[in-house]
Each structure stands twice: as C-alpha cells, then as structure tokens.
C-alpha cells in the first residue's frame, strides 16, 4: 500500500475511506458465495466470472470521487440486482426453448406411433391356444411370462416404412450401374478416330490426323500444327490458341471434345458435327440450298486470318457454336 504524504488529518481520512472500500469488497465476495450456494451449479466460478467482472467494472465506472459506504452499498445492490434479473430472464428463455424442443420431439414420436398403430397385426394363434390350455398361475409367475410374439400382417403394404436391407441393396445396385456407365464411357472415349481437316488460308489444303474420341479440340489443333509446320512456314511460331476449327460453318470452342458432338449427335448449319470423315462439298456439286447428310472437312485456320476476312464469304457465314440452337435447315446468309 502506498504511503500518503500530506497532513495527518487528510491521511487519516484517506485511510478510513480505503478501509470502507475493503469492507465493501469483502461484502461483494460474501454475496458472490451466497449466489453460488443458491444456484447450486457446478463450476459456477467459471460460468459467472464474466458476470461478477461486469458487476465490479460497472461499480467502478459508476463510482466517481469519494462516496460514502451507504451510497456504495446501494449502488452495489442495485447493480447486482439488475444483473441477477437479466440472468434469471435468460435462464427462463432457455428453459422455454428447451420445453418447446421437448414438445416438438414428443409430437413427432406420437405421429410415428399413430402411423405404426395404423398397421394391423396378427397374433400367433397357436400360442393363444397353448396359453388357454395352461392352468392359471400365481401373479408372481405371471410377471415373468414373456410377451407374446407379434408378427407383421403380410397383407398390409409396408413399403413406406424404412427398410435398411432394401436401401443397402438399392445403393449397391446404383453404385454398380454407375461404375458400369463410367467404364463404358471411358472405353468409348478411348476409341481412335480419323479426322479429315483442311488448312484454310484462302484455299484448302486437306490433311488427316488420328486421335481419340475423348481428345479436345485444343488437343486436335496441336496435332494439326505438328502435321502442318513442315509445309507452312507461317505456322512455325504459332500455338494452338491462335488457331480456329470451323466445322459445318460453326466455330467450335477449344474445350469441347469430339465425344461431346458424337454422343449428342450435334448438327451444324451445313451438316452433322458428329461425323469427321469428308466427302465433296455439296455447295460445289449440288444445289447449295439443299441439306445433305454428307460431312464436310472442317477448316483449321489462323484466328488472325479470320479477323481480316470475316466480312468475306465463306467466313461471313461462320458463327460460334451454340449447343442450345437447332439448325433445322441448310440456309445461306442473305437469302
């Protein structure tokens, strides 16, 4: 305790006030113990530490300057009373919530019980006859008699009831079918396919590459570059990102796979997208307004060439592929 330096009367007054505060603190501790005994909750010091700290903090903040012992007691009692009232209110709210949960659970149990009671059951008739033939026993012996065996009535539909064995069998069957489907798709995607394409720089240069159905358009363009670079010098520094693949007048995005077009039997503006062999262009040997089932060689070209010539035929007919759009007829733009 720090020593007070000043007049003797002031030192005595300060000492007197300090003793009053110590006495008030002792009364707070006694009140705290009394609350612990009333509530009878285990480990109450940990649970209500925040409560008493808040009381003490509020008491300190509301006490400014020198106050009398009676004033401090009155403030202390008021603060503790308010805190106890709030705790009691919270406890009552929690108890009400818990009661609501218990009532909801009980209502659910009663509903399930009524559904089960709606089923009809047959008692074992043979056991009834055996019980009728036996002599009556003492009440002590009757308590030890096991309950009669109950079995379900086979005429009642119980398909709506939970059945663990049936659910496990369904899950097992679903998993087997899923694995079978995955293996089938993997084998189909692994099948080889020969794609005929034409490198387009204003005129066509037809080539072939062999790859798998599961390969993407981007992987296809990489293979095309490997085939074309020895013959076309402008492609030596080009990457697959700078190329476009146009099939049946549609610009195909790089992320699609050939399997996507095959499995959906997608169609373009001038023929099917799911056939990758080639025949003569119907626009050269037949009426251009008539659709044919023949597939045309897709065009591989530089994106820069398309940007320079997209206003000129045939680039003026090309448009990005839209899987939601249906091309029912072969049409020529402007007619």
From TrEMBL:
Region (Disordered): 1-22, 78-147
Protein name: Protein FAM50 homolog
Domain of life: Eukaryota
Bias (Basic and acidic residues) ranges: 78-106, 134-147
Family under the similarity heading: Belongs to the FAM50 family.
PANTHER family with a match to the protein in the record: PROTEIN FAM50A (PTHR12722:SF0), XAP-5 PROTEIN-RELATED (PTHR12722)
Gene Ontology, cellular component aspect: nucleus
Extent of the signal sequence: none
Residues spanning the membrane: none
Organism from which the protein derives: Papilio machaon
